[in-house]
Amino acid sequence: MKPEIQEILKAMKEDPRIKTIVLQILDMPDEEREKFRKKMTYYFMDKRSEIDIEAFKFFKAVLENVEELSKFFKRR
């Protein structure tokens, strides 16, 4: 298992808000997820704070690992 997936799963266990966000992303149809990815990329384009950078990395990791994450929650 990729380290970023382990981190996402750990964060989901520790914070129910993160779990909700991840599950909402996993439940999005492919087109909606692609629109979300574009909006998220655009939003974080000029952000420079450590929190923003970490949030961007988180969303990017979730979006890049939808298939593998879905296996843990019987989605897709």
Q: Number of DSSP helices?
A: 5
Q: Structural class per helix/strand content?
A: mainly alpha
Secondary-structure element series:
HHHHH
Poorly predicted regions are: none
| Portion in strands | under 5%
Shape: globular
Compute the gyration radius: what is it?
12 Å
What is the helical fraction, as a range of percent?
A: over 70%
The average pLDDT value, as a whole number, equals 93
Spatial separation of the terminal alpha carbons: 19 Å
Largest sheet properties:
none
Count of strand segments: 0
What does this structure look like?
The chain is mostly helical and about 80 residues long. The chain has five helices and no strands. The chain has helices spanning about 5-15, 15-25, 30-45, 50-65, 65-75. It is globular, with a radius of gyration of 12 Å. The chain starts with a helix and ends with a helix.
